[in-house]
Design brief:
globular; 16% strand; 309 residues; 11 helices; alpha/beta; 2 domains
Length: 309
C-alpha cells in the first residue's frame, strides 16, 4: 500500500511554473506550465508512470492521444494539467493513497480519471467524502462514501470509453453491475457513470431524454440505488483558446424508502469553493494553442529533462 506523498501546499503550487523554468532552462509559450504539471503528476504517481504516460505513442490513449493535429496537442495539454489539478486538490481526502495504488497498474486510465472527476464534483460542493479502499468483496467494493450533511451514501463509478455508442441498455447494465457487485444491499447507494461527451452534444438532447427515461424506469425496480448521475467531461477546441467543462444529468429515486431529500445537494455546485484551479493560479484563462507544446510532446519529456539537467 502506498503511503501518501508529501503534501504540496497551495503556495508551492503557485511556484511550480517558475521552478520548471529553472529546472529545464529557457522555454517558450506555455511549455513551462506543461512541465510544471508533469512534475506534480510525477510527485504523486512516480517517474516511471509519468514518463510512460506522457511520452508520445506510449501509455493510455485517453491521456496521450495521437498528437497528429493541433487539437490533439491541446487536448493532451489540457488533460495533463487537469490531472495535476485533481491530484493537488484531492491529496487530503481520506484514503487518497488507495486511488494512487489503483491508477499505477491500471491499463484503463480513463476509469481512474472518472473517479477523480466525481471526487472533484463532491469536493467543489463542500460535501464530506472519502475514497473507499478496494476490497474485491461483493457489496463492499464501491468507490466513495459520501456524507450529504448526515445522510451517508455509498457510491460507485462506471466509465464508458469515448468510442462507446449510445445505448440505454448499456447504461442500465452499468447500474445493474454496480448494484450486484459493488454497492451494499441494504444501504443507500448511488451510481456515477461517465459518458462520451458526444452523448451530451446539443444535437443529442433526445439521447439524454432517452437515458433519463430509461434510468427512471429501472430505478422503480430497486430500493438501494437512490440516484444515478450521468456525466461527461467536454473538451472545446477553438483557434484562439481551448478548454473543458463538466456537464451532467441526475436521476433520483425519490420513491425509495432509503431516499433522502439531502441527496439534491448534488446539483448545487459551488464554483466559489476552495478548489484550486491551476489555470487561475498560474495565470492561464484556458489552455491556448501553442505549437511549442506539440513540439515538446513530440520530443518526449525525458529528452527535455536530460537536456536541461
Amino acid at each position: 500500500m502506498t503511503v501518501n506523498p508529501p503534501f504540496i501546499s497551495s503556495l508551492a503550487v503557485t511556484n511550480f511554473p517558475a521552478l520548471a523554468k529553472i529546472k529545464y532552462g529557457k522555454t517558450t509559450g506555455h511549455t513551462h506550465f506543461y512541465l510544471a504539471a508533469a512534475e506534480i503528476i510525477e510527485h504523486f504517481l512516480g517517474s516511471e508512470w509519468t514518463n510512460k504516460q506522457l511520452l508520445p505513442g506510449k501509455g493510455d490513449r485517453y491521456l496521450n492521444p495521437s498528437l497528429i493535429s493541433d487539437e490533439d496537442a491541446n487536448l493532451h495539454f489540457y488533460r495533463v494539467i487537469n490531472l495535476a489539478e485533481h491530484l493537488i486538490n484531492l491529496q487530503g481526502v481520506v484514503n487518497f493513497a488507495s486511488i494512487i495504488d489503483c491508477i499505477r497498474p491500471r491499463r484503463d486510465f480513463e476509469s481512474s480519471m472518472a473517479e477523480l472527476e466525481v471526487a472533484q464534483v463532491l469536493a467543489r460542493q463542500g460535501l464530506a467524502f472519502e475514497f473507499v479502499k478496494p476490497s474485491g468483496v461483493a457489496g463492499q467494493d464501491y468507490d466513495f462514501q459520501i456524507d450529504f450533511e448526515g445522510y451517508s451514501v455509498c457510491a460507485d463509478v462506471k466509465c464508458k470509453i469515448d468510442s462507446t455508442k449510445f445505448s440505454v441498455k448499456s447504461i442500465i447494465n452499468s447500474i445493474k453491475k454496480a448494484r450486484a457487485k459493488n454497492l451494499p444491499k441494504h444501504q443507500p447507494g448511488m451510481v456515477f457513470i461517465k459518458a462520451p461527451d458526444k452523448w451530451f452534444e446539443q444535437t443529442n438532447f433526445t439521447l439524454m431524454s432517452q437515458a433519463e427515461s430509461g434510468i427512471s424506469t429501472y430505478l422503480e425496480s430497486t430500493e438501494t440505488v437512490v440516484g444515478v448521475c450521468l456525466y461527461a467531461h467536454k473538451f472545446i477546441y477553438a483557434s484562439d483558446a481551448s478548454g473543458g467543462f463538466m456537464t451532467w444529468t441526475t436521476v433520483l429515486n425519490k420513491n425509495s424508502r432509503l431516499f433522502d431529500i439531502r441527496l439534491e445537494l448534488l446539483d448545487k455546485l459551488d464554483a466559489s469553493s476552495a478548489w484550486i484551479s491551476l489555470y487561475r493560479v498560474w495565470g492561464l484563462a484556458a489552455p491556448h494553442r501553442d505549437r511549442q507544446i506539440a513540439q515538446l510532446i513530440a520530443k518526449g519529456r525525458t529528452e527535455a529533462r536530460s537536456g536541461h539537467n
